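Anyone else keep sequences and structure tokens together like this?

Example one:
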Amino acid sequence: MYARPFIDSLDFAENGREINGEVPLADLPRLLDVLENPEGFLSYTVRGGVDRQGVPLLYINVAGSCRLRCQRCLNGMDYTVQIGTRLLLRDQAALDALDDNVADENEEEFDSILTDARMDVLNLIEEEILLSLPIAPKHEPDACQMSGDVGHKDAKHPFATLAKLKVIK
């Protein structure tokens, strides 16, 4: 077991710090709901910096793989996680201004998050992973067991019994 990493996001970004490591999938509780199995690890790097306008930001990179549940056949499927994102750090007033469309129209479009003196790095990484996942993960049609079984003459269609009950007049 290890200690969860926490950072002062503003200080971390302004001083160009970096943290990296591996996190077991089992330690990401919100992600467990979409996984077929919680085995494995993801590698991450969080690096601080400042953009051209002096706005502090975090660069987040996550790599690895996990097993999601296919929404067609409900079997597991390998999914490659490859995330590279940039998050601008803003105080509450700056975020409110963005919400009210008061921000500079020439500013590049990047996601912004609230600065936090005790930011949980694993929660941040988990959020980015969840945002990157497909809404309804599915195998490719030719790789999905459900779509492959339906075409076989010996395979029983899940609604075959209901079709027998259908009354034709």
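And example two:
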Amino acid sequence: MDACTRSAFVAHSMLPAYKRRIARARANVLDALAQCHKPYIAYSTGKDSTVMADLVWRRAPGVPAVYFDADACFPESHALMDRLRAAGRTIVNWETEPILDTMERVGGPTSPRSDAATMRSTVYVPIKSLVAAHGYDCSFVGLRAQENADRRRAIRRFGHLFFSQRDRIHVCWPIGWLTFEDVWAYILSNDLDYSAVYDRQFEMGLDWEDCRLSYCYGETKRTHGRWAILARGWPDLFNRFAQRFPEVRRYI
């Protein structure tokens, strides 16, 4: 991150509104920890889960961070998880059906069934197996209202802590009302380690607000340049993707 951008985000961390939203997020974490006995952190290696994990670990350093491993992780994110383990954090890789296998099963990454199928195979199904195997009773999830209207409505409807009938587990959205600027201000003002995927995307010309991190082979936003970014920044990963699904080359 360049010095000018870093300074702007650090300056944001001095604002009273930022401090109020962080205090609210901390209170949300404490509320969940008080009501639940065996939580875990849903960890994507992205900026939101990086902030959320730090908020939880400051109060309960032994809570594990669980990464649902669909064989679609950026190398920079693998490296981040290795660094966190070396620093003493508990990072659990929970294997799911490989996302490329899911896509193939439903007709490829451009199939209208792909989005729902990959959500099921990489999120909904593994949550059930994880909870059954380890007895977790709460999941910290880094959802934010600013990301889209659906998430905003969900956070307003359910609040920061609720019981998910689908997953049979409590869910806490501690950072639901943080802004994009709040997230980066927290990371930089607290000197948190984060995935270098973001720096690479910014170097490629993306605005910081548009730098996103998820599975490298995800189908969401394919018409907005997602696969073109993958091809430019991580050609080996893209070529692996295109070898299996040649149609993705039409999007770059």
